[in-house]
Design a protein that fits this description.
homodimer, about 25% strand, about 325 residues, alpha+beta, nine-stranded mixed sheet, four-stranded antiparallel sheet, Glutamine Phosphoribosylpyrophosphate, subunit 1, domain 1
Amino acid sequence: MKKKYTLLALILLIISCETVNKNEFAIVIHGGAGTILKENMSNELETAYKNKMKEALDAGYYILKTSGTSIDAVEAAIKILEDSELFNAGRGSVLSNNEEVEMDASIMTGHNLNAGAISGIKHIKNPISLARKVMEESEHVFLSGKGAEDFAVSKGFETIENNSFITERRLNSVRNAKKRDSIQDNKFGTVGCVALDKFGNITSGTSTGGMTNKKWNRIGDVPIIGAGTYANNNTCGISSTGWGEYFIRNVVAYDISSQIDYLKIDINQAAKNTLKKVKDLGGSGGVIGIDKNGNVMMDFNTKGMYRGYIKSDGEIKIEIYQ
Amino acid sequence: MKKKYTLLALILLIISCETVNKNEFAIVIHGGAGTILKENMSNELETAYKNKMKEALDAGYYILKTSGTSIDAVEAAIKILEDSELFNAGRGSVLSNNEEVEMDASIMTGHNLNAGAISGIKHIKNPISLARKVMEESEHVFLSGKGAEDFAVSKGFETIENNSFITERRLNSVRNAKKRDSIQDNKFGTVGCVALDKFGNITSGTSTGGMTNKKWNRIGDVPIIGAGTYANNNTCGISSTGWGEYFIRNVVAYDISSQIDYLKIDINQAAKNTLKKVKDLGGSGGVIGIDKNGNVMMDFNTKGMYRGYIKSDGEIKIEIYQ
């Protein structure tokens, strides 16, 4: 008799483990972290940011809801953020020291650990789509500069003028930064997205124009698999935004995944531990992620982070400040 | 009385843990992994490889023995390997599809998690020295292409003609590969070094010409902190050599470190676990490392790996085949 109850309890436990915190599918995005303060933001601009994030989330959510794949959802959401002037990626990218746009992006799929990354792109409208193409149709993971653009052209991508990415706002920013001889403006513009689809597959993607006034063809954490982007169906998907150098040195995205894997802790605690390491070295920024059970994480140690998610149970959140 | 014995046992245990396997300092190098078979190697060539590895190890060992730093030891050893035509790094680098040398390198110091990396270098004699300069004298971790070379020139580096890196042997290789339209020759030429100095500081460095017949400014694992190179005084230092794409996707160097950190397993078991993941995805290669106690690891899942170490207790090993 006692044995039967034990068995019943065990079955109930297994069922509850499977259902608690289990989201069928989910999507989370970020649009960069940094010194983003309510007192410096007009109501109109705040609404514009929130509307654009909603548009990106909705595009990905619709794909997931209609049984599309997480990679299609991530690409669709990031393209919307890249095409917006509001965020530092695609059109609206910050400018390098020589007043050009140089973009980086990466994508990774968690079911097969495939990955694609590009850096120093100047003439491709949607860098995230090129990162996906590198993953799906080259023998390589990471292509750069002119070579990456030659690959793009060989795959039918259209090239556009570099100045079609450039906005008045970013031109003013870089000229001010050059006067101060500074690369650091405390805003880490990057866009990113992580999605879990109905098939249990996680995809992560990240895209950026890098740092204002960057020199010497600097590569940040965004195209570095393990730092800016990581996805593994057995653990989680992560996209980072922050002071790239510190995110590379701390292997941020993979450090979160490996804690889930090896320490068996949850994604929120893992992210907290990793961001503390970044802060201890002197860096700052944020991360978003989804674990294999659909738990969504958004964490940062800056004043604000453009961020939002939609879960399959309908829960939606879009926030900017702490 | 019982308490006293427990205390005594505890003290003895602590002492034994501290002394067992503790090497005051150590240096380990690799010169690439792949299908390296005794039947394809002349005695003269084998001797040349072993002598050059001995020369590199001795140079680093001398620095460590005379209370120099691990970063000086790693740079000195790698420069000797880069300057040799035998290895795929510096002079003797394999050629890209357009018959040029394009070199990548990275370095990381374990006491402060500082790192420097470069990719797509065509005119700097010793890429490892440029990676060190990026770490020590730029605000960035990773510079690429022409920008990285402009940085080098601004720091007083001399530039040399690309064809001064090119050897007859590598020119034949790339022309054969182009005929076969193959990028994969089952030899992953890379050189790397990890050293632990008397001050307990670990440095790791890696340098390469990449893959024969590579296209599109491909970047492999060598300049990726966490994949090709990682160092942390609390765990270990690692340098990788292998099919770069698989090493990036598995975040190889950091995966070994994180297992030591989170699973509390030894460096040999951690390396074995990580190389199994690489193999399961379809890749191959090898890793070398030293943990914080001076335990040296050299592991690979190919037919051979040019490798060797010297420990402070005088133990020396230089090997090529399985």
